[in-house]
Amino acid sequence: MSSAFAHTTLESASPAVGAIIQTWPSDLSLTFGEPLEQIKGKELNFVTVHGADGSDLVAAAPTITSTVITVPVKANKVPGLVLVNYRVVAADGHVLDGEYTFNFQSASAAAQPISHNSISRHGNKNTAVYSATTVLIVISLLAGIWIYRRRKL
Length: 153
Description:
This protein has one helix and eight strands; from the N terminus they run ββββββββα. With 153 residues, it is α+β, with helices and mostly antiparallel strands. It folds into two domains: 3-121, Immunoglobulin-like, CATH 2.60.40.1220; 123-153. The strands form two sheets. Strands 1-3-6-5 form a four-stranded antiparallel sheet, with no helix packed on it. Strands 2-8-7-4 form a four-stranded mixed sheet, with no helix packed on it. A hairpin with a 5-residue loop joins β7 (80-89) and β8.
């Protein structure tokens, strides 16, 4: 397959995918297989970073140098799973969405083994809204069917 038909991929990241780090970095870097598109005055490429407590850790807009996007991050004192989401546009116009995680341990927690119970998961805060909406839709549909069938009798 020629490179003209290939889509970009995440080649590497710092901190690395699945890494366990003990020192919090000042920035995160993601390296892709193709140069990233840049249009002056337009934000095409995004990186979000969320700590184990769900806090937004992005400190400033990312910078792009060819295949590398670097995002400055705020200080993080909460040990646990860190979620990195990205959406980038390659120079060929293809959009790549993805995410990865790494684990941050403070120096004092580094001596302790990681238990599955201690790793926080980044959840969708809208789950309750989605659930309630789904229940209301199902109830409305059932009520509508019941009313329709009662009118036919």
